């Protein structure tokens, strides 16, 4: 497997192609509790696979009763709807230097949706897992190459995570059937984990008794400081926050222009580890506490707001969240070879006019 | 008004931010006659403005009976549904060198949707245009800066185009209310024209008796070869075509890998000027005719297909459309200062394995 050399400075045509195919959530969409479907961030590794009514989901491996479900059988079962904030593990990658050649997310790879589906635990119970099972593997229908290795997109969860009552095999998003780009007709949704765990275009579920060694599990999605080290697997989302940029925008530079006076600043904060307890807001690195709302749902981002008395001139705004586990966003990105888990504070540069 | 200096070589952070906020249509979505809503290409100049049920549309200027319509009044009228292919005037900009600093579209800024709304002509008839009227101006609710000029997004159409029976004030897309990013709750849809004419977040319609001089009409969206010249306004979409990339993809390079043997190639072709009459397909610059389907609707792209007998090795694929007006896509981009109207043939590089 060959490594891709890191990039310094301006962005490559490959990065732009990935940024154009996929997309982040425009930050003004932080205004919505639930992100409208077409605004939800997207990361599609290969091509969106075609699907039709004949789709079926197989459940097998180390189980007493392997079975397969048609789409109609799955959607006719009792379902659960949960509101979940998902963030790409590579969010913020494009702001680190040198950076890993991949999707150059700035900071907008996060969104919240209402997912409807069948609890995974119910399907596993019906299949009767054997005692030896330690992990559950999820196989997507999307297939391609990465670093010379051809593979289906597949990921596993440790058994105790797979049995959580809030892990869904989802068939609907925001009350409508899944759109193609979000995994139609079936996907996994794993609250609190970075997005790579929520396998799209779900084809097969497999119980195994050893650590899964698929490419997206063993090679990709690890925190590493040097090439070749085993590293630490990406799992729960780190504490993070964003603010909706205030005022008006310049088309090309995306610089913000704000009128002097009282400005209501607002945004969202989330953590896969624990609820967010505190959000701070800074003007020119002078920090003050914002008001943080209680969680609207156990796995959804929390809103926050604060008043800013904007004074004429150039200013830097920032926000920083702390969760109930005591984790706080760093002021500067923490180096990672592949650009994973960058939860450094967001900074917005604004011109305030009188 | 200051000009932005052209860019050579790798892409800027500003271009990446625009590519990440906005998005193209992933080319595998050429498989859909109608592009699913969240896959339809997007170009949002400023911020997506908020909207609610209190939205109203004003119709005024040089009319005998100015009036305003509530959203409920508009959506309760008899409506028309039409299938329309829209393409961004800047599609292909990112492939020209030197290039204009803006959204660095490669070739995926095109999509087809089913739009439902009220014919604009019916609203203009009710308002009773005065004899002096020569243009109709459309004002969006989105506001921001470009090249130092603060303005609402606004565009005009010549009167005869505005009175075409297929120009809609649309309130639905693919059978659902407009999503925020596509102009909720109301937008203009102008078939055959590049996308900038289809003003989103439509607030006001104004009849005037002189050439509209708004920024997006007079400064932006002109074909120009040198800075400062008046140029030719962008209007009808030039003849163009795309193919769905065959085989599997490598995640980062987006290089395609295809198995040797028979490969069914397919794609879409369109022109704002006339129906597409011919599509040619080339392997290593050796051209052959593809089979082109009749238009599925008067203003929607046409599908085409051809069999490719793929032989082991490295190959370059290309496609080229010709319309009934005799316009044909150029083999190389035609230089334009702002990167508008680049309808040069698409090229895909593939590795065929035995």
Descriptors:
homodimer, five-stranded mixed sheet, Sulfite Oxidase, Chain A, domain 2, mainly beta, Immunoglobulin-like, 354 residues, six-stranded mixed sheet
Question: How much helicity do the residues of chain A have?
Answer: under 10%
In CATH, the topology of the largest domain in chain A is named: Sulfite Oxidase, Chain A, domain 2
Which percent range describes the beta-strand content of chain A? Answer: 35-45%
Mean pLDDT of chain A: 97
Terminus-to-terminus distance of chain A: 57 Å
CATH superfamily of the largest domain in chain A: Oxidoreductase, molybdopterin-binding domain
Structural class of chain A: mainly beta
- Uncertain stretches of chain A: none
Notes on the structure:
The structure is a homodimer. With about 350 residues, chain A is mainly β. Chain A folds into two domains: about 15-235, Oxidoreductase, molybdopterin-binding domain (Sulfite Oxidase, Chain A, domain 2), CATH 3.90.420.10; about 240-354, Sandwich (Immunoglobulin-like), CATH 2.60.40. In chain A, about 10% of the residues lie in helices and about 40% in strands. Chain A is built from five helices and 22 strands. A six-stranded mixed sheet of chain A has the order 14-15-22-21-17-18, with no helix packed on it. A five-stranded mixed sheet of chain A has the order 2-1-10-5-6. The model of chain A has no long low-confidence stretch (mean pLDDT about 95).
